[in-house]
Design a protein that fits this description.
444 residues; alpha/beta; TIM Barrel; six-stranded mixed sheet; 16 helices; 13 strands; 34% helix; disordered N terminus; binds iron/sulfur cluster
Length: 444
Amino acid sequence: MATTPIRGGSGALAHVESVHALHPDVPLEAVVKEDLLRRGVWFTPEALAAHRDYAAKSYFIFSFDRRPLAEMQGEERDRAPEEISLSGGPFGFKRVIVSVRLDPESPWKVELVDDRVTLVCEGTSVAEVGFAPRPPYYGMKTADGTPVVEVAPTIEWGYLLYLTVFRLCQYFGRDEECRFCDINENFRQQRALGRPYYPVKPVERVLDALRLAVGAGASAKAYTLTGGSITTELDGLDEASFYVRYAEAIEAEFPGRWIGKMVVQALPIESVKRIRAAGIRIYHPNYEVWDADKFRLICPGKERYVGRDTWIRRILDSVDVFGVGKVIPNFVGGVEMSKPHGFAHVKDALASAEEGLDFMMARGVIPRFTTWCPEPLSELGADNPPAPLEYHVGLLSVYRRTLEKHGLAAPPGYGEPGLGNAVFSVSAFMDVLDASRGTVPLDA
Ligand code: SF4
């Protein structure tokens, strides 16, 4: 991999180079990946036409775009791939997998250069680009006529079936929705374009989609059951009961076939035990932002319905049920720098994130993070630029250092760690971990 300057000057690549110089322990591939995730990327029609069989962006839960769909036009919007791989090229990249977040104005473009699909930044070729492989069951429909990709898309380069069984969140409006989140607005924009996009997936439809995936030979190793929070009832069920019924049905028909993961609120311990008893192996009670004051301001629904102190206590309590390393709450890397509530300085934001990681990892919890992409239909995304690249790259260093300090391996349920192996696409945390330290065993 090249360590010499990329091109100098004041553009986006020069900025990548200068941030990489501050963190030489972070591979250049990971720095570029974080910049793509925070800024977005755009495709030329020629580049899209050069690949045939690939998985198009499924909008598996949020928009993860830097522009509303209505402001982007044409096949570049409708045919963009779910993920891209970056490899080779003038800097000899080892492979990294990057989730696609669209922005026609991004300095990052995927173009045809000398007949090769290439990542280009302001005129400079950076890496060769592959598109996410098309799972063998895509194009099929469930028995009730629903496109299977709406029910059970695959992300992470074929590793993860993503089952958003409730596409809305009952945290509703400005005083409840997490302020970085566009789940409800994304639902509206998908429907406005006439796309098949349904609020609740019947259990039988999910099972049918999984049957199609299995029958076609899909290679996924894990599934995630997820969706919005349920503050009252849905289908006459509270949150735990609503989501547990999917896990029970999947595990009854496909016992132990995949690593089952579930994203729900931080629930009381009796509910957590029910989730584990249903066959779920990994629990994601996402805390989103560590700092106590910012949690209350940025996640007002979580504060209102559960409260930050209770949220944290329930995360810790759930280790007794799931085991060390199998409670994996997400936080949204970068949102703690958003205006008007966020930190003004990178070092303060990193210190807060490190405090949270240290607190959790000392207690057997291994958080993970996604890279914040300000989605314009979310409250914070409407007025904020992305967080500084210095923050995102600094966070990769902080994460790896804190994990090693506590003698922990990579969290399970994400595939292999390490550059060239990792498939987790929405942040580079798995790319920067030491592959030789392995993964926390699922059965320990
Ligand atoms: S809990 Fe927050 S992040 Fe999750 S879907 Fe609801 S509003 Fe979005």
